[in-house]
Amino acid sequence: MEVDEESMAEIQEPSYSESDRKHMRRALHLAAQALGKTRPNPVVGCVILDQEGVVVGEGFHPKAGQPHAEVFALKEAGDRARGGTVYVTLEPCNHHGKTPPCVDALLEAGIKKVVAGMVDPFPLVGGKGLARLADNGVEVVVGCEEGKCQALNRPFVHRVQHGTPLGFLPLTYSRQDFVRPAPATVQLGDGGKALEMIDAIVVDFNVKGEGLQTVAALQTAGLLQDEVVRIVLANDLSALPVEWAKHKKASVRKVVLTISIAGQEAAVEVLEGRGVEVIAMPTDPLAVGKYMHGLGLLSALWLLCPEGAKRAVKAGVVQDLWIHATLQEADDLDGVDDPDFIGRQFGRPMKMSVMSCDAVGTKACLLSLTVDDTATL
Question: What residue spans carry the region label Disordered (predicted)?
Fold first, then answer.
């Protein structure tokens, strides 16, 4: 994270009370209401206390282009904010984007103290917002519930630092082999939680034409928000089922990436007539990741065949793997519970986040692993 160390020099060392943590947790709860809807912005929540310590304003950032969390909270608090304390999950901005700087609004409102969950890694901020508040006499403390704040905005932080969306990859492991996940598998464990926050779902249609059924199943179950961009990698456009392009809401964005449209003009016309964008470009994982970054997407769910999955992990566009392992012998995990085993399969070091098993005749395990950039195979 690039942070202006000189700007941060006047910020106080962390010192938090249980009251501080309680209000920051409330701000986190508010921020989470906008998961999957703010791209390319982070999710942010804000709570304002008056001079007596009474909550007088709350807010969260609902969508890019709309006011930030601090502005909503200040509007609710009104004059009661003067001399009060602000709890905000992310450092207030100090630059003009689609909206004015939040630092200006906080200073104008006469806020006495700001408790921020974390420094904004975005280069235009990077400690400058907190430093300006401190320069103007506001007491500033940063780092309250920082771990939770970082976790909530992990996709935003990853995009800023790596230039691609945070990638999630579900797979099924059965009979000593990895296979593309069934729709139900995607919803299990951490996968079900992450469906709330993804900005895109990527399906490689070039291998066996699978994956679109999973997208359809997730849509039917109401597990894909309308804001999620549907991206399909398909070099033979005529093989794509026309039904895939159907959706009851025309606002849902559907994109097909293909190496070339030469000789496929008729298929392009059919797809575009159904509201699908067709783009000719390289379809290797890194190129697709960079394309999604250009769209401002923060996170993506990749539905790939095993070989495609390995390419995506090696290319650095996948950070989390969710593996549903179904094994015939209750005491035989085939090594799938070993992060080093998984790492060797995918060519990147891994660390286990969560593992839960239920043995009833067969052994069904849900594994959540994260690529470990600090280790080597």
Answer: 1-22
